[in-house]
């Protein structure tokens, strides 16, 4: 029986990956709230300038110097910044799924018709307002990890997440399915927030983590929104 289950899983995984690959070509239609609290429709996809489509990529072009090889059209260039941080593992918890871009796209598409799903940007508000993934709400990691310092923000976050607090106890029966992200695979903000949510008792299976965050999202040319 174990062998049969394993075989079925192996067969299923390529099918799942194939379904997710659809978003590579179709993108996802979604809604988000702009800085004026107005609902806007948006198409989320890879935004690649036509000049970049037939670019013959070489080792020297991609990996050498300042990532601005003279033969690369300016429309195809982006600044690559190496920064401090702590590289995160691929898995934070046995029951917390790690997402890539296609899984995030599917999540965004599904959450359009549901009120029990949230995409959460865990960075500080100034980062969120500068640029974020369309449809994401902002709950700073500090609102959860530093609840004693920001009690009002903590209570607001609990309400947004669907958590009811009564007599010092937390009721997670209506807790939302959430995807959390921050600046990148070297960013510890969303992992810290996940750690503290788990300590509160948040169901691990309702937590998803987009490890690549804004760094990978923008590196891949995915649609983003600004609030400024």
From TrEMBL:
InterPro entries in alphabetical order: Rhodanese-like_dom, Rhodanese-like_dom_sf
SMART domains for this protein: RHOD
Pfam short name (any one): Rhodanese
Ranges of residues in domain Rhodanese: 113-226
This protein's name: Rhodanese domain-containing protein
Species in which this protein is naturally found: Sulfurovum lithotrophicum
């Amino acid at each position: 029986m174990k062998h049969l289950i394993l075989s079925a899983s192996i067969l299923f995984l390529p099918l799942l990956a194939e379904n997710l690959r659809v978003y590579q070509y179709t993108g996802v239609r979604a809604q988000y709230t702009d800085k004026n609290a107005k609902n806007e429709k948006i198409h989320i996809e890879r935004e690649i300038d036509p000049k970049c489509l037939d670019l013959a990529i070489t080792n020297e072009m991609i990996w050498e110097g300042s990532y601005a090889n003279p033969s690369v059209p300016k429309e195809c260039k982006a600044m690559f910044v190496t920064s401090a941080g702590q590289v995160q593992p691929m898995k934070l918890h046995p029951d917390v799924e790690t997402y890539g871009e296609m899984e995030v796209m599917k999540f965004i598409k599904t959450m359009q018709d549901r009120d029990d799903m949230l995409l959460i940007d865990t960075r500080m508000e100034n980062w969120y307002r500068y640029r974020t993934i369309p449809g994401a709400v902002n709950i700073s990691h500090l609102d959860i990890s530093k609840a004693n310092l920001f009690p009002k923000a903590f209570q607001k976050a609990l309400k947004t997440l669907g958590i009811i607090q009564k007599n010092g106890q937390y009721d997670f029966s209506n807790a939302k399915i959430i995807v959390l992200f921050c600046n990148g695979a070297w960013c510890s903000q969303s992992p810290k927030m996940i750690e503290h949510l788990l300590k509160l008792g948040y169901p691990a299976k309702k937590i998803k983590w987009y490890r690549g965050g804004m760094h990978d999202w923008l590196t891949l040319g995915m649609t983003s929104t600004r609030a400024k």
